[in-house]
C-alpha cells in the first residue's frame, strides 16, 4: 500500500501532482536520472488516475492496449485489443510496484492551494493532509479529471438517486429501476448497453448526436500472448504498426479535412446497418462534419437504443421534479435514478483557481480567455511549474501515453538545463509563448475541429484549447531539440 499520509510540513526538491499515467511516468523518469528527492501527491487512496476513477460498467479505452501503455513497461499479455478499465488500473498499480514508487506516493493529499513564494523561489503546496514546499512542481492531474454535473432546473429537489458516471455508485441496485441517463458521449456509449438489459426502463437524453464507428475489438488468445512475450521484435513491431496507423489520421483531422468524407460514409453505413427505423436514424445522425466532435467507437450503442425498454429523448430538459424529468415539450417521465454522463471540466478546470504564480495571479485568471501554454508544458508567470497533458496536448487520433512520455522527457531536459546553468528558476519567455500560441491557433483554424460544431475541445470563447494540431512525432521533435534562449533562467 502507499505510504501513510503525513500532517507535518515536508520540504522536497520536486512535487508531482497526481498518480496516474503522467505522475507515475514522471516519478520513474526522475529515479532513472538519480533524482530521489520528490513526492507524488495523490488525492485518492490508490494510484490510477482516470482508470481508477472511471469504473462504470463497460469502461474501456478507445486506443489499442499495446499502444496505450508505456513504451518502457510493455505488457505482452493484454487480454483484448482494447483494454478494459480493470486491466488498465491493474497495470498502473503494478507499474508503481515494479518501479518502487510506493514509498514516494502520498495518498489522501488533495491539493487545496499552490502558491509561489517569489522571495524564496519555492512553491508552497497546501493539501488536505498538510503543507509541502517544493522548488519545482510537475502537474500530472490530467485534462479530464474533474467530473462536470449538469445545471438543470429543479435538480436539487429530486427525491431519487443521482451520480456521475465518473463516480459510479455500485451500491445502488439498478435492477428494475426507472433510470435516466443525461448525455450520449464517450462514457454513455459504453455503460448504456451494459445497464439497459438490467433496468426496468431507461430514458437516454441526447443533446447532440455523436458519430459512432465500429469497434474492432477481440480477445488475444494464449498463443498471441505467448508470441508477444517470446518472439523477438513482434510486440515492438506490432506497437509501431498501430502507432503509424493511428498517426495517419492526422491527414484528415488537420492537413486535408475534406478527407473526412470517407470515414463519415463508413459511419453512416454503420447507422444504416444497425438502425432499422428511419426516424431513429435521423435522430442519431449528426449534422456536423465527422471528427468535429470526438468520434466514438461501439458495436452495441445503436442496438441498445432500440430495446423495448429504452427511449431516446432528444427534445431537451425543461426541469427536474422530485419524481422525474419534464422535457422541453412538457412531457413528464418518472425516474428513480439519474446518471450524469456529462463529461469533465476540459476547460475552466477548478484546480486552476487554486494555483497561484508570481504576484498571486491564479491560473484561472491567466487563462480567462482560454487555456494556453508553451508546448503544453510551461506557462509564463508560473516559474518551475511544469504541466503534463497541459493545454493543446490532447489528441483526436492517437495515444495520449505517447504525449505523456514525450512531455516527461521534455521536462527532464528542462531540469537538466537548469542544473547545467546552476539555475534555481526557469520560465518560458513571454514572447516565445505568445508566438507559439498564435501559430498554434492559426493551424487549428483550418482543422476539422473548427468547422462549426461546439465541443469540449473549445473554451467558451471558441478558442480550441484541448488539442494538438498535428502529428505526434512533430510534438516529439519540438520538445527534443530546443533553444535555451527561449527560457529565462535565474538564481
**Beta-strand segment tally:** 20
How far apart lie the N and C ends? Answer: 39 Å
Report low-confidence residues grouped into runs of 5 or more: 1-6
Mean pLDDT equals 95
CATH class of the largest domain: Alpha Beta
Fraction of residues in H or I helices: 25-40%
Q: How many individual helices?
A: 14
| Rg of Cα set | 23 Å
CATH topology of the largest domain, which one?
FAD/NAD(P)-binding domain
Oligomer: single chain
| Beta-strand content estimate | 15-25%
Net shape: globular
CATH homology superfamily of the largest domain? FAD/NAD(P)-binding domain
Specify the biggest β-sheet.
8 strands, mixed
Structural class: alpha/beta
Question: What is the CATH architecture term of the largest domain?
Answer: 3-Layer(bba) Sandwich
Which features would summarize this protein structure in a list?
18% strand, 5-stranded parallel β-sheet, FAD/NAD(P)-binding domain, globular, 8-stranded mixed β-sheet, alpha/beta
How would you describe the overall organization of this protein?
The chain has 491 residues and is of the alpha/beta class. It folds into two domains: 283 residues, FAD/NAD(P)-binding domain, CATH 3.50.50; 160 residues, FAD/NAD(P)-binding domain, CATH 3.50.50.60. Helix content is 29%, strand content 18%. The strands form five sheets. Strands 1, 2, 3, 4, 5, 6, 17 and 18 form an eight-stranded mixed beta sheet that branches. It has a five-stranded parallel beta sheet with strand order 7-16-8-9-12, with no helix packed on it. It has a three-stranded antiparallel beta sheet with strand order 13-14-15, with no helix packed on it. Strand 1, helix 1 and strand 2 form a beta-alpha-beta unit. Helix 12 runs parallel beside helix 14. It is globular, with a radius of gyration of 23 Å.
